[in-house]
Amino acid sequence: MNNFTFKDGYRISGITPQIAGEELARIEQQHGELKPPIVVDEARPKDALLHPAFEWDDFTAAELHRQNQARHLIRAVQVVRDNCEPQSVYIHIDKTGSYLPAETVVSRNDFYEDAYRAACLRIGEAQKALSELERLAATNQKSHIINAMEGLTNVKEQLALANQ
What we know:
Elements: H1 17-31, H2 36-43, H3 58-76, E1 78-79, E2 87-88, E3 90-93, E4 98-101, H4 102-107, H5 109-136, H6 142-162
Antiparallel strand pairs: 1-2, 3-4
């Protein structure tokens, strides 16, 4: 029997990691694949073990979905100036919980530090994902992963040096 946990930073309301892991394994085995629509359908009955992990009030769920669409929209918009590479218009700042104009973020040290930390965290998450993939990969697949991990490590080191 496997012991399950949630990744760092994840909290799923109403269920334990063990229940989530076991139920997802059951669903994948039963259906031969694991896709979000299948998981939602399996969780729909009120007595389903995954039911508490979802918002079932349609009005609330629709509003939350629209908020996710708004996040996606805000992150998707870029500006192109003077034949330069496109750049993000807005950057999410954790401590305010909002997206601010990129110019504002880079002009204020506190916002810049917040955005910088978030970017470094994403690099760390990519390193963890590659490390996990490396552990699972066959020997002939590992060279690509090792190269990518070395690249991320170099980027992280350069960012640390630049931020000193």
